[in-house]
Amino acid sequence: MHQITIAAQNKWIRFNFKSREIIATFPSKFTNIHSANQTRNRIVAASDSRLLLFNTSNMELVSDIETASVIKSLTTHGDLILITSGSFRLNSHDPMVKVYDIRLKAYRAPIAFPYGAAFVTFHPRLSGTVVIASPYGQVQIHSIERPQDFSIVYTSVYNIGITNLQISPSGQAIAFVDMSGMFHLLATTSYPRFNRSPETVAMPSSYYKPDSNPVAIDDYTYPLNSVGMPHYTRLLLSVWPSNQVVNVARPPVSIEPPSAPIVVLKDGTKIYQFQGKHRRYQTETKSHKESKSSSYQPKFRSELERAGISSNNPNKLLENEDTNLHDISKAYKQLCIQYSKFGASDFDFSFFNKTCFSGLETQLDYAYLNSFLQILRYIPVFYNLAMNHVARDCPNDLCLLCQAGFLFDMLEKSRGEHCRAANLYQTLSEYPVAQESGFLPKSSQMKNGSNLSGIVQAFAHFFLETIYLQATYAQTIPENTITDDLALIYNERKVCLECGAQTQNRIAHFALDLVYDFVTEDTTFESLLESSLSIKFQNTGSCSMCHRNAPFYNEKVLERLPECLTISCNVAGPENRGFWRRQGAPRRRLNIFQGNDSLAIFNSEAPVYASEGLAEYELTGILAEVTDQSDCSHLVAIVKVPEDLEANKPSKWYLFNDFLVKELSEDEAVNFTPVWKIPSLLCYRKKNSVRDSFDKSWKESINKSVLYDATSINNVNQPYVFSEEDQLDENSLLAIDAEFVCLQEAEKEEKSDGSVRFIQPSQLSLARVSVLKAESGTEDCTTVIDDWIMTKQDVVDYVTKFSGIKEGDLDPRTSTHPLVPLRKAYRKLWVLLNLGCVFVGHGLQNDFRTINLHVRAEQIRDT
User: Does the keyword Transmembrane helix apply (predicted)?
Assistant: First the structure.
């Protein structure tokens, strides 16, 4: 009782805090970093990557456990010890939490945490539940007994990092401290209880200072409007939501005296004769024709054909309207595709898009990323990177940059027709980070109140860093070209405050996170951006020189700015939202001056004189989160389309709300005063740059080696390939046939009246594609492609009656056919398409839609 054991350097100190005396000292030959108490043992993490168990009574060593890397933190409960580890020299963290069982004296299955586990602690109230945190603020609540049960919370300290994490004894609050010294608190309720007992914590009473100039209640000369409104950050109670406002009955319309004579009955009752207007002299107050034409859902194309109508009525969604501060504008509302028995092709997408720019469909697993991809499509430096990469030969079947290039080319060729990012999302789903951690939840798993902006901002970091690594590995793009275009280059300096040892390193950040720690009402966007670019903080860690757990001074000095500056707004919490309410709009132009050791940012509305170290940036894309009154949110893209995409017309702003595309005025595009509209990502591009234009030279350097590749996954020789002597151009006729398998049956709802409503069409996947080339001057054809596509997904129906494909034909372990990955087969068709070849076949529009390839009508001969 009243005793604590302190782990000092090379010794243990037992202290009685009641008598305030040191009662015992135990020598130790280990340098202790972390320690924790267990029922019978004292658990210690040593600096030499060992886990030590001491007897609590005499501090004798009981067990010595080797670990693979340096232990960063540990926690214990019962017979379980949870360990996070990593490398102090590289400042890295292992993507899993190790679980050691004292009773079994062995490790159990680890807990996956791909962000890098830095802190771990057991939940005090939920048995078998642990809280894991990364150094950059991702927090995962995980069940050891049920690994599939976990949830992830995103915090707003990605660019700073956290130094400590604790959970309250009640389990209702999690507290952590970031590297700038700010304290953060996450709670399950608005008024959390911190201790276990039901009694509230005693707090000091607040001091109330009465008004020095009281006003008498009967002073009628005092103007009431002199009493100002208190500062508020949420909607007032007087602002009723639209779903709680109803139209009451109209007052009765007075009956005009009729011109017809009055009929008097024998009982004395007077009756007006019917005048042929409305029964009982009712008045028509609403036009039914107008209400029908104002519908936001178009008729199906099959319905238009049966009715003999060429197109749907004009869409109210595309009309300009005044911005409402509290009700979402029509064009910003969340959209969904309605299905008929003919599938998605029967939906009139042209009802939502009258421009030459294409939207993206929504019925996919990761469709909430559509807006982010649309922004990247209209950034010249990123478009050029993707297209120059995909034109070359990339060996990676899971390359996201290849899939981005395929998607951008499809969006360009479609010229206003809808597209799907199905192949990119399918590739993304095969990444371990999307499968194991819930880092990328599927659209069907998203719930109201989900931090959608936080998910997409974390994905932006992951996506940009991944394509950098993939392009560098494939050697299709020079490494310095990618960093010059997309990355902020920092010179990082770390100083140990105990021994003075210094380390320096050059690091690349592909997105800048805004830090709101010291924001006041007078803070401007320029000052916030400047403080976020200049990073200085202190933290603690193990020094490789003095081998102590010492404080460190960290400084990141900006060395070089990119061509495209991506800013993550990190708007989480009412204070951060209040900043954007006060700003009203992000800066449309910025000047960033970078000297030797100085950095200055100022608004670029005034004329600027060119000077060395001065970079001028222009706002080109905004990813905005739109939240309705039921706390359901979705993302939209607001993009400034460059001049060279609109026949050298002046740049215009466009709204991309999935498959809805609408032109916006500049004032509406950057207006963030409505409470339902919050910025998530901002993209600025450098003005007057040599790379600030779309490069189409990639079309002249397409690598055609994939057409001559006869290799397969299961080592079955491919007998059909193109010859290098084949001339492939717009005069080449290629007969094509494709077979598909069903991955998911159609979902439909049968109503009591016998009608059927289709909820989701069947999901098909390419299983086999065959191409025959017509020999010039003859009627003979040569088979040049006969690819069977390997699939990793579960097939529910092989459609053998029509496709001829049987179970096992697409499995590399059992198939006797040459199997290739989907990307390889797709690339062959993509190369032929861009060489100008003409495809001949039956029902090719539906086939190409399922393959996810847009082919213009002039390159199709449908039989």
Answer: no
Structural domain for 791, as ranges: 704-862
* Domain membership flag for residue 423: yes
b/e burial code for range 398-418 (CB count within 10 A of at least 16 → b): ebbbbbbbbbbbbbbbbeebb
The Cα–Cα gap between 404 and 93 comes to: 30
Token reading at 10? 């090379």
- Specify whether 373 is located in the same domain as 429: yes
Q: What is the mean pLDDT of the chain?
A: 81
Phi, psi of 113 (to 5 degrees): -150, 85
Q: Across-strand partners of 224?
A: none
CA distance 381 to 384: 5
CATH code assigned at 763: 3.30.420
Q: What is the mean pLDDT of residues 726-755?
A: 87
Q: What are the angstrom distances between the C-alpha of 341 and each of 47, 130, 297, 593? A: 66, 48, 17, 59
Average pLDDT over residues 133-157: 78
More confident residue, 428 or 198: 428
Residue where a domain terminates, one of 657, 686, 715: 686
% of the chain at pLDDT higher than 70: 84
Could you tell me whether strands 614-627 and 633-641 are parallel, antiparallel, or unpaired per DSSP bridges? antiparallel
Q: Cα-flanking dihedrals φ and ψ of residue 696, to 5°? A: -105, 10
pLDDT of residue 316: 64
> Does one domain contain both 503 and 640?
yes
Same domain, 657 and 509: yes
Contact 404, 467 (CB under 8 A): yes
| Co-location of 733 and 793 in the same domain | yes
Q: Output the pLDDT for position 290.
A: 42
Same domain, 725 and 848: yes
Q: What are phi and psi of 201, to 5 degrees?
A: -75, 135
Residue 289 has pLDDT above 50, yes or no: no
Whole-number Å distance between alpha carbons of 813 and 271: 91
Indicate the residue among 633, 655, 686 that finishes a domain: 686
Contact 736, 769 (CB under 8 A): yes
8-state DSSP, 787 = E
